[in-house]
Each structure stands twice: as structure tokens, then as C-alpha cells.
Amino acid sequence: MGNYVGAPGSKMSRREFLAATGSTGALGLAGCTAPTQERIQAGQDGSATAAATQDGSVPTTSPPEVVNVDEQGNAVTLKSLPAAHSAHPLETMGGPVELPRVWAFQADDGNPSVPGPILRTTEGEDMEVTLDNTDGMRPHTVHFHGVTKAWEDDGVPTSTGIQVNPGEKHTYTIPANVPGTHLYHCHYQTHRHIEMGMYGIFRVDPEGYEPADREYFMTVKEWDSRLPRMAAGQDVTYDPQNRKPDVFTVNGKSAPRTLHPEAGSPVIVSQGDQVRIHFVNAGYMSHPLHIHNHRFQRVEKDGGVVPEAARHDMDVTNVAPAERHTIEFTADSDPGIFLLHCHKVNHVMNGGFYPGGMLGGVVYEEAMDTEIFSQLMEYAGYEA
């Protein structure tokens, strides 16, 4: 099991989580009786990727990690490798939901993940990003949204003439000159390579940045699973001009797996916390994201600060493809469990089962020792 729980960003230790749930109380049984015939073969908590899938060919993905690039000499190496991705591996709530083949980004010696690792740096720094494709099977690039960079570092092979072929490495210089939350992705055959999982968050903290009490990163995406299935050798045909999304994820997971404290991304808060969430849309459709019982303000968009005079209380923010919205709110509701989801209701489904898909939750620590939270953990497959 991992050391921390919750969505990437603020850290709650697993020990603190167990204490909040009552440890060996009702939650201690969660997952033991979950209605499922098959559990994930490797990486039950999302952290063990060395184990291969059933046919022994590829690793499984982990949840995305935050990489503080400043702390490692302003340099990071990215690789992409084939992996199996379980959006929700159990039979609960319309599962299992599987993407049998994705192309996952891996930072340095970390675990491959979909979304890719969150690369975090500070305004005024130059980040050296080496795309290592020495063991690759196809060309790739990396394109960073938001910041202003040299022409040859734009990551677009059509307009720069630079692509990183199998067996090659290439280093991009990415200046952190636009504070905010941004997106990076492969820009070679973009319509396929993003659909296969090659995307992640790039965060530039402004000078003197003051984090909130709780700060989280959330990437949403819809998938047409025919492409990952075709890449895994299944007898299906994918047409990017006739795309039919059938898998909907938050940080790579579909509900109820989104609520798994280690493999998923619950937004864990305590009453009175100031909460900041960085939403990124890595898909090809707009997603109106709604939080129950909390009014928030949108304070940043695409790295631009929203002037205070233009802010207002809201409970839905519609995030277009490639957009980034940062919202802030106070955790001042009756302590409980409140949904966070796309309000295109067919996106909150696993196949024909509702609820599922692009749905997460704001979970108060004060509600973690309740029977309903224990039941949700059971649906998510969590074992204390």
C-alpha cells in the first residue's frame, strides 16, 4: 500500500486516513466482501507497476505522481511505454472498466501513469525535459501549453521538423515564464497519441506562491476504448472521425474507483479548509464540472489570473478541451461526502450503469468513520 491517500497534491498519510476511518472498525472489512469475481492482478493500490498483466507483456499503470522538478536540478526525463490501465477493475457499479493498452508517461525512475506525472516548477526557472525514446516503438514529441518558448522547443513535428524517433533522445528547454496550470502532451499523430494516454499536467507556481490548506490536481478525459482495445490486438476498428466515447475518467479512473483513497483521487478536506483544485481537460469534449453543496470561485484560467472583480460564486465550471480552470472554495458544508462530477449525465456512467464514469467526491475527514463511507470504499475495492 502507498504512504499517502487522496488526489495528487496535498498529502494525507495513510496512518491519518486509517485513524479518521476508525481503523479496524467497519472500514477494516471494506473490500473483503465486494461483489467481484476478479481483482486487479497488480498494483491493487496503484503503486506496484513492476508486475505484468496476465499475458506477462506490459506493466500496469499507477496514479499520477507530483514531480518537483526544482528539487532535481530543473531537469526531468520522460519516457513512454505500453501499459495496461484499469479505470475500474471490479464488477461493482457497472465494472470492470478496462483500457487494455495505453501509452503511459513515466518520469525518471517513477511509475508509468495515465495521466502522466504532474511536473511542477517555479516561475523564473528553465526546465530541461528530455524525451527518452531509446526503447520506443514509434515517434513521439512533447508539447507544453501556456509558456513561451523557442520555436524548436514547441514539440510540433510539422512546424519544427523535430520528432523523436525510436532509439533517440531529445531535450526541450521549457521556460517557466507563465505561472499557472498547464497541459503537456505528445504532438505526433495527436489524435491518436492523446487518446492512448500521452498527456499530463505542467504546473508553474508564481513567485511567492501560497498554497491553500488543501490543493489538488484533477484531469478529466473521455475515451473511445476501441483504440486502446485495437492497440491490444482485439478485433475492433477505430475511426477518429467517428469517435464514440464510452469510458469517462477523473485522473484516469472511473467511479467508484475514483473514490479509492490510493488508486483513485478523492478530494479529502476537513471543515474550515481553504481548498484549491486545478482542473485540466485532456479530452476532446467539454465537461461541465459540478461540486455538490459548495460554492466556488474560478480564480485562474489557462494560467491567467481572473481579476477579483470578475469572480463570482458558482457551482459548475465548463472546461473545454485543453482548458485549465483553477477553483477555490471553503469546506464549510455539513461534514459529509459530496459528489464532484461532469453534469453531462451520460458521462457519469459505466456502460449502461449509473452512477459511474466521470464522478469523484469531496470527502470530509469527519465523515470517514461512517457506514456509508465504508460501503463506498467497498465498491471502490479498498482494503484497509
Automatic annotation (TrEMBL):
Species name: Halobellus clavatus
Gene Ontology process terms (BP): cell division
Pfam families named among the record's database cross-references: Cu-oxidase_2, Cu-oxidase_3
CDD domains for the chain: CuRO_D2_2dMcoN_like (cd04202)
GO molecular function, one term: oxidoreductase activity
Domain of life, per lineage: Archaea
Protein name: Multicopper oxidase with three cupredoxin domains (Includes cell division protein FtsP and spore coat protein CotA)
Residue ranges of domain Plastocyanin-like in the record: 111-207, 243-351
Keywords, comma-separated and alphabetical: Capsid protein, Cell cycle, Cell division, Copper, Metal-binding, Oxidoreductase, Virion
Residue ranges of the region described as Disordered: 40-64
Polar residues bias (residue ranges): 44-60
